[in-house]
Design goal:
The chain contains 11 helices and 8 strands. By secondary structure, the protein is of the alpha/beta class. An 8-stranded mixed sheet has the order 1-2-4-3-5-6-7-8, with helices on both faces. Helix 6 packs across helix 9 and helix 7 runs antiparallel to helix 8. It is globular and about 50 Å long.
Length: 291
Amino acid sequence: MDAQPSPSTREHVVELPELRAHVVEAGAGTPILLLHGFPQSSREWSRAIPLLAQHAHVIAPDLRGFGSSEAPDARYGLAQLRGDAVALLNAREIERAVVVGHDIGALVAMSLAIEHPERVTHVGVLSVPPMYLRPRPSMVRSMPGLWFQYALATPRLGARLLRGGRQRLPRWLLAGYGGVPAADAEVYVASMRDPARARAGSRIYRQLVVPEFLRIVRGAFRDRLPTMPILVLLGGDDHVLPRDVLEGIDRYAPDVRIEEVPGAGHWLVDDQPEEVARRVLAFAGLTTPMP
């Protein structure tokens, strides 16, 4: 990407019908909606936003229950988070956007593209499969590594694991799979000491992650994948997702590309924000692709 002055970043609260959302914005032009992963916030994108904003209008909200957005005593299913994203686009008077999500944010991005294709021009899916898995023995072998999802989804236990004692589980999650910078990890862990945010984190797994994963495995989305361009971006060192489960996805989605970022783990945006920004901009046709 050509070196340009970094656009100024704007932070503000947007009043949505069911949520007071903290939003970071920068740049102008083509809108790019960035949706963070668990247990992070828009802070995840802080090093990528200045790069993206040289070519686009970047909008990065804190999802409900995270960062400085509200943590309402409500549902945290896919419909609710997708609804928040649509409401944010409406509030900012954005008709269509490039939508890029990491981790749980990727599930929201895919759901938005499926249910509201008129609002999405391109969809980027980082560190998770694009709502299609072909069951393979390798997937069964990887399941023990996801034990924490069911612990976090358990009522009362999940919230206690997120906020109680030394918070070993969230610290372990943020340190593993490639690792989040220590200063950022401390911010995320500290936010989970709030009981409302700990409950929200548990509900995310109980009402979104676990049930949607089971729906994906059962093939609920195989005939509903988006028709707009899809980028599946994976860390080359992220071994949680066996690559063979993605074989044949082009039969279900007409315009999909699967790429890896060498040397990056699950925390792809933290590991290599410049490379992620470069690939997202090239995918969206906002810069000239580089070899």
